[in-house]
Design brief:
Blueprint lengths: L1 H22 L5 H8 L3 H13 L3 E8 L6 E7 L5 E7 L4 E6 L5 E7 L7 H17 L7 E8 L2 E2 L6 E3 L11 H4 L6 E5 H13 L5 E6 L3 E7 L2 E2 L32 H4 L1 H4 L7 H9 L3 H24 L4 E4 L8 H14 L9 E3 L6 H16 L2
Helix pairs in contact: 1-3, 6-12, 10-11
Bound molecules: zinc ion.
């Protein structure tokens, strides 16, 4: 028992030392001593272990304030481990990799037509392996693959429980896992965006994330965690509806869901337009396009006001749409919100997200980085 207790102290000291490399860009023995109070033999032993495992690297010298003598500096080895993220769409996939700091290190978009077949999942894992090779990532240092799903997933993140945009209900991670040597997890896409945004902003307060891409997603962050509710269906506010006789059919089978007013697929006609061509017309003040844009923004404002009445927390506009939103757009939305709010608002609660590149794949990969750091 005594030995086990000693082992757990040693493990804890080792983990604490590693975590320090996330608080400081450069670390010396003195920095470890000042922060953790470990003895010099413990510090030396842990640095040796971290170097041997290639989790840290030497980084020149820096002067210590106490002795004035140069001391060896160390820093995190950013390629110590890699996490992969993926998002599936109807006619393409995106793959990204995150380094040990949880920063985007590589990304790629590959055209593949979705089909819920083994051939398709095999093809995707082949593309993933090609990505790992071409980006010169060490496959033995990959901690896992997170896949953002346009639907709901089980608590254990291994099964798709609801997916109507891309029909893959009941798909399990085994479809990918059998071709890959590292663990695979699923994550609801809206939750992934919320995690990515929370990480980027270092926000700790509760918030609602309204993620606008081809489809709409919403997620609630409560006490630093996604609030999923008893059966994982909380935060799917895109399917709130009240005008049941509305003729806008939602993919969920109901009519008039917020999705049918706010998703990008309702803003542009994807057979003839792209978001880029749409915003080119906006920037050239095309009156017809501006009218459509303002009608759309009025819908977005309506959705935001409804969400705000449900939970009085900041609302972060996130997802692909953020690439096209300007301060002027936020100003327009805030003005509209103040006009239609039931309550007088003291301060603005709308914020613009920061993750513009592959937020779903990014957020799906992020928990794997965090888990590795926590469980070291
Ligand atoms: Zn719906």
């Amino acid at each position: 028992m005594k030995d086990q207790g000693m082992k757990s102290v040693q493990k804890n000291n080792f983990a604490e030392t590693f975590h320090l490399f996330y608080r400081y860009d450069r670390v010396s023995k003195q920095v470890i001593s000042d922060n953790l109070g470990h003895s010099l033999p413990t510090i030396t032993s842990n640095l040796k272990k971290l170097l041997n495992r290639e989790l840290i690297v030497k980084d020149g010298e820096f002067l210590t304030q106490k002795t004035g003598r140069p001391a060896q500096a160390y820093k995190l080895n950013e390629s110590a481990f890699t996490s992969l993220g993926m998002e599936l769409f109807g006619n393409y996939i995106t793959i990204i990799s995150l380094n040990a700091r949880g920063e985007l290190s590589a990304k790629e978009r590959i055209d593949i037509i979705f089909e819920n077949t083994d051939t398709y999942y095999k093809k995707i894992t082949d593309e993933l392996k090609k990505f790992v090779d071409s980006k010169k990532l060490d496959i033995d240092r990959i901690v896992g693959l997170g896949i953002g799903i346009q639907g709901l997933v089980s608590d254990d993140q291994r099964r798709v429980v609801y997916s109507k945009i891309l029909p893959m209900a009941d798909l399990t991670t085994a479809a990918f896992q059998k071709y890959l040597p590292f663990p695979v997890t699923f994550l609801h896409d809206a939750d992934a965006v919320a995690l990515a945004e929370q990480h980027a902003s270092k926000r700790t307060e509760d918030a609602i994330y309204l993620s606008i891409g081809e489809h709409l997603g919403t997620a609630m962050m409560v006490d630093g965690k996604i609030y999923n509710g008893a059966r994982g269906r909380s935060g799917t506010m895109e399917h709130i509806t009240i005008a049941m006789d509305d003729n806008r059919l939602c993919y969920c089978g109901r009519h008039g869901c917020i999705e049918t007013y706010v998703a990008i697929s309702t803003l542009i006609d994807e057979s003839t337009e792209t978001l880029t061509s749409f915003f080119d017309l906006i920037h050239s003040d095309d009156s017809d396009t501006l009218r459509r844009w303002h009608q759309y923004l009025n819908n977005v404002a309506e959705a935001i006001v409804n969400l705000h009445m449900f939970a009085d927390s900041p609302i972060i506009l996130a997802g692909e749409i953020t690439n096209y939103l300007t301060e002027k757009t936020i100003g327009y939305l805030e003005e509209r919100i103040s006009q239609i709010s039931a309550f007088p608002e003291e301060k603005n609660y709308l914020e613009l997200g920061e993750v513009h590149t592959n937020p779903v794949a990014f957020g799906a990969a992020l928990p794997l980085v965090q888990r590795f750091i926590e469980e070291i």
